[in-house]
Design a protein that fits this description.
By secondary structure, this protein is mostly helical. It has helices at about 1-5, 15-40, 55-80, 85-90, 95-105, 115, 120-140, 145-175, 185-195, 205-230. The chain is globular and about 55 Å long.
């Protein structure tokens, strides 16, 4: 990548990624905690595993639709005009990529792949269920959690949920690719299996885990810290 696109190519789309990440965690955690508090009030403060699933589901759906346009723009910034250095340089910017998308596909293009993005909902639900169960177990044994324990709980829950649900990430990226022959999730999935086999569904898993696990762990640890002090 450094030879063909230069050093800036390594950070292609980072501005949109930062905005998307902040929006995603802001929408998800605020709505999740609000809904969880409402559920706790309705259940007289009794915590059950099922208590976390409803709030996580609603928060996940809200997050998908709030961030899907940013995911599409970031994907296009990375994939569009890969063979043209000049076009690549132009697409480094968020606004030109957004303008290009609106001109070529219209408003609906911002929600390309939104259907397949909903398959992220089970991953969010699984991650938060594991995270809450780990927190509850640590609290049962030690009474309270340290920042390090919040970090480890977030890391482990994200590691397990991401590894299980990773194939959907691969399919979603293929669907959002402007050069994709089909926008059908099933067609992309079957074509991927036919051309690359089962291992194609897990292509790039290691770098993905190296990216999302620390990100999730840090975000949850910081959120818990701020929640306890403000």
């Amino acid at each position: 990548m450094e030879e063909t696109q230069g050093f800036r190519g390594v950070y292609r789309g980072v501005n949109v990624a930062l905005i998307s990440s902040a929006t995603s965690w802001g929408v998800y955690m605020s709505s999740y905690n609000l809904l969880k508090r409402i559920e706790l009030q309705n259940t007289a403060g009794t915590e059950k595993s099922s208590l976390f699933l409803g709030p996580s589901f609603v928060a996940s759906v809200c997050t998908v639709f709030a961030t899907n346009p940013l995911v599409v723009i970031r994907t296009r910034m990375i994939l569009l005009n890969r063979d043209s250095r000049r076009s690549q340089h132009t697409r480094l910017q968020m606004v030109p990529a957004f303008s290009h998308l609106m001109k070529t596909e219209g408003f609906g293009g911002l929600f390309r792949g939104a259907g397949v993005s909903l398959f992220a909902v089970p991953q969010y639900m699984l991650q938060m269920l594991l995270y809450e169960l780990l927190k509850r177990e640590i609290e049962r044994q030690h009474g309270s959690l340290s920042s390090e324990q919040y970090f480890m709980s977030g890391a482990l829950s994200k590691l397990v949920s991401s590894a299980i649900m990773y194939p959907y990430q691969v399919v979603r990226s293929r669907v959002m690719d402007v050069a994709a022959e089909s926008t059908s999730m099933w067609q992309v999935f079957t074509q991927l299996l036919r051309n690359e086999g089962f291992y194609g569904l897990y292509r790039g898993l290691s770098p993905q885990l190296l990216r999302v696990v620390p990100h999730s762990a840090i975000s949850l640890a910081v959120f818990e810290y701020l929640s306890g002090h403000f």
